[in-house]
Amino acid sequence: MKSPAQIAAAYETAGTAKTKLSFGKTFILGIMAGAFIALGGLGSQIASVCAPDPSTGRLISSIVFPIGLFMVIIGGAELFTGNCLIIVPVLSGKATIKGMARNLGIVYLGNMVGGLIIALLANFSHTYAFADGKLAQAVVATAVAKSNISFMDGLLKGILCNILVCMAVWCSFAAEEAAGKVLTLWFPVMLFIIGGFEHCVANMYFIPAGMIASGVYGIPAEGLSIFGFLVTNLIPVTIGNIIGGSLCVGATYFAAYLKN
């Protein structure tokens, strides 16, 4: 296992390489990551829809959802929230803030496309008909709740979420083998799901999935709108994710292990 200082050095190199990827590769890998996270979200919804109480439902979801991040890391995809750690090579002078912003912008759009693709496929394959339509109702209810979150709740839950997601990515760098990476990333992501925190990339699936399901299954969805998706949810959650990943994790570990 790598020491914390070795993890910081390893991510410094990996983050620098991310800023040098071409637009096409970055965008394609962004789509893949968005789809993987969406599939993890879809699996967690299916697994937990018949849970006897909310706490059990969250626990079940937390066991399944990390599969998405596992596919991102082992498959080599580009995830916006994890890439907030690129602040590490930026602060060390091996990458530029312009390169970080370019990467995050392209990846964000790619993640959005990937999430929308899975939302469309899940709806029109009638996957949400599971459990006599209970899954469709749960998908719509989740989207409605996320689209009506307050700005401060979205911001703070976004910070908490990406502290854990970036710790999952960071810890995965400690292991050399796939099995070790799986074990190290799983538990921080489980904790983020149990906490009910907000992940902008996951929401690129959850909210559109509910919007589409509302029409496909004829389920009323009061307050569910494009405005609620893009402005009410994504803006504060994205800001919170950037703060949690870049400042609370990336900049802190840079100061601890790489700053002279």
Structural account:
This protein is mostly helical. The longest helix has 32 residues. The mean pLDDT is 97.
Tally of contiguous helical segments: 12
**What is the overall shape?**
globular
Helix content: over 70%
Quick check: average pLDDT? Answer: 97
Major sheet? none
Query: Secondary-structure element order, as H and E?
Result: HHHHHHHHHHHH
Structural class: mainly alpha
> What is the number of beta strands?
0
Low-confidence stretches: none
Distance between the termini: 24 Å
Rg, Å, rounded: 18 Å
Which secondary structure elements does this structure contain, and how are they paired or packed?
Elements: H1 4-18, H2 23-48, H3 54-64, H4 66-75, H5 80-83, H6 87-92, H7 97-124, H8 134-147, H9 151-172, H10 178-195, H11 200-216, H12 226-257
Helix pairs in contact: 1-12, 2-3, 2-4, 2-7, 2-11, 3-10, 4-10, 7-11, 8-11, 9-10, 9-12, 11-12
What is the structure about, briefly put?
The chain is mostly helical. Helix content is 78%, strand content 0%.
Write out key terms for the chains shown.
single chain; 260 residues; mainly alpha; 12 helices; 78% helix; globular
